[in-house]
């Protein structure tokens, strides 16, 4: 049984996989810097018990983190409760990818996991674009087994919170589809602007990518990605567990050398 942690800026997603690579359970907790290894372990234990899964048989752990302080906490958890040295995802591990960028080491571990999974899903010489709708929205582009770069923009929830936090009178809205872009009150104005603005941003970046590299497979992941993907006029596969699976792929390539 393999334990996978995907530490993002908003959530820590935990995945428990059996040895054949099947995802048995996953859950998310808020990425609070005050979390301790004992708290995260007790969430894990409770949720695993509830699902009749015995985490006693965990024999491997991998961590992808874009929040350095939380990496340490999950490292402590691995040592304290499982006596395992986890594999920490980074660009110096064995990866099936070449990098045509200035500094592969600065690329977020979640993005490394996403591109490794995308690479394993599609044939060698195809082109793929991964969009991850997290705290930030990220685009990552693969040409065959070469990572050629990408882009980063503020995530949808972050844009909503930025409006709310930096103004006196704008409320926090819930992201959802609204039929007209002509709002009739403040909430509708924000809903319309965020909804159609977000779709417009993504479409324009995809259009530019297509202009630069031609046709590609599109893979999307992350909370609000499911709603947005349907609006893009582009064939796509929405894979909510893309990052967890990518971390597992990286674990499998690197486990013997740990
Ligand atoms: N399962 C979900 N269902 C709906 N929305 C989600 C879900 N998970 C995350 N979100 C939304 O996506 C945003 C980014 O969350 P997440 O993908 O966990 O980010 P990160 O990877 O940066 O921690 C959250 O603010 C939340 O609004
Ligand atoms: C771009 C990110 C903030 C996305 O993080 P997330 O939205 O998943 O929390 C993260 O991958 C990161 O901190 N990256 C480092 C810079 C880079 O990827 O180039
Ligand atoms: K993420």
Automatic annotation (TrEMBL):
Gene3D superfamilies cross-referenced by the UniProt entry: 3.30.420.40
Transmembrane spans: none
Residues noted as binding K(+) in the record, renumbered to the chain: 132
Molecular function terms, GO-annotated: ATP binding; metal ion binding; pantothenate kinase activity
Enzyme Commission code(s) on record: 2.7.1.33
Pfam families documented for this protein: Pan_kinase (PF03309)
Principal subcellular localisation of the protein: cytoplasm
Locations listed in the record: Cytoplasm
UniProt catalytic activity: (R)-pantothenate + ATP = (R)-4'-phosphopantothenate + ADP + H(+)
Active-site residues, record numbering mapped to chain: 110 (proton acceptor)
Protein's name according to its UniProt entry: Type III pantothenate kinase
